[in-house]
Amino acid sequence: MARNGLKNYVPRSLYGRAALILLLPVVVLQLVVSTSFVRRDLTDVTGQMTYTIMREIDLLEDVVARADSQEEALQALKPYVEPLRINVRFLPTDAPAERDILHWTEFSGRVVRDTLRSNLPQVLAVQMPNSEIAAIVIGTHLGPMKLVFDQRRVTAAAPHQLILTLVAFSFLMTVISFVYMRNQLRPIKKLAEAALAFGRGRSVPYQPRGASEVKAAGTAFVNMRARIERQIEQRTLILSGVSHDLRTPLTRLRLGLAMLDEDDAEPMLRDVDEMQALLDAFLDFSRGVATSASEDVDAHALAETIVGDWQRQGKDVMLGDMVGSGLVTLKSGGMRRAIENLISNAVRYGSRARVSVMVTDHSLRIRVEDDGPGIPQSQWNEAVRPFTRLDPSRNQNKGSGVGLGLAIVADVARAHGGVLRLGTSESLGGLQADLVIGR
């Protein structure tokens, strides 16, 4: 549980995690060095300097204790205060009580104050209004006595200089490291963008760059992309060639059968038509979206055009909900073929079909529903496999097929980096096919 909770606070991007790895040691090092310096070095040095001034205060107090008046005390203190560079004066007894004055940045001053108060109970006030002058008010039998001296006698000059220097240089090195890290991560980002685009059916220019490992991964991706493109092209060429070569003898058979008696030739003509449909289906499957170019398409307009074509054929195909708006980068030829295949299956196995489109900032969903018998959930995965015919679940008497309709749709979805999801229509009761593509 603790490990899963920690994952929620860890950055998900490589750049964020690299930044965390870079910043965390710097921050920890700063805290350790600052704490060690403040608690050990700065505090110890300030304490030692404060003990020195305390001995001088004890000396001055002994001199004042032997005097009977303030004037006599000041006269007796002259031989001591001049070598010690301390300015001494007595405050009026009726003057308001002196209070501590410390600047909010004076960490060392607080150490001086605490050390004096813990060792000299006669200290009335410790004043350090700036970084130049320090004053200590001491209670004597002649009245409050104020000692003014250079603050550098009790605190180190620029005590925070080390910390500020450390912070400044750490910030500078962090900025330099971020710039360098960004340049190192840019080739990885370019590789990810090229792979994502290729997964969605687009081939963007990409040149392997960066560190040797990243460059090796980029070169492997380029080679893999080239092999896949060659495989798709070869598949298309082979099946296109087979289809083209078989069309000629099929045409001769059709012409020959047309010269025979109509009753005798009709069964054979149906066989020829079925063979022609089979070749066309093979060709569609082999092409996939290879012959389509990526372009910005209005998904709503595309669906409306396709539905209008089917309505002109007298089919009960209607538009459903049209949600969202915006252009989507698609291979329009392949996407049109996929939608038409879904509608063709819907009107073949049912009497009505409905097409809905939803466009969001992150995805495109095209849904085709029908009122046919549907497909059992246990056979959804098998239904999208090529050359699979689900005779028990679909009424094959309403049309013929070779089992490539949904396979072509799934192939188009994968070429766009998406997926084909099958389900049951809640409103029509038949099959519900969702073509979901990321934007």
UniProtKB/TrEMBL annotation:
The keyword Membrane applies. The chain crosses the membrane at residues 162-181. The keyword Phosphoprotein applies. This is histidine kinase. GO terms for molecular function: ATP binding; phosphorelay sensor kinase activity. InterPro entries: 2C_sensor_his_kinase (IPR050980), HAMP_dom (IPR003660), HATPase_C_sf (IPR036890), HATPase_dom (IPR003594), His_kinase_dom (IPR005467), HisK_dim/P_dom (IPR003661), HisK_dim/P_sf (IPR036097), Sig_transdc_His_kin-like_C (IPR004358). It is an enzyme of class 2 (transferase). Residues 182-233 form the HAMP domain. Gene3D superfamilies: 1.10.287.130, Histidine kinase-like ATPase, C-terminal domain (3.30.565.10). Signal peptide: none annotated. It catalyses: ATP + protein L-histidine = ADP + protein N-phospho-L-histidine. Residues 241-439 form the Histidine kinase domain. Its EC number is 2.7.13.3. It is found in: Cell inner membrane.
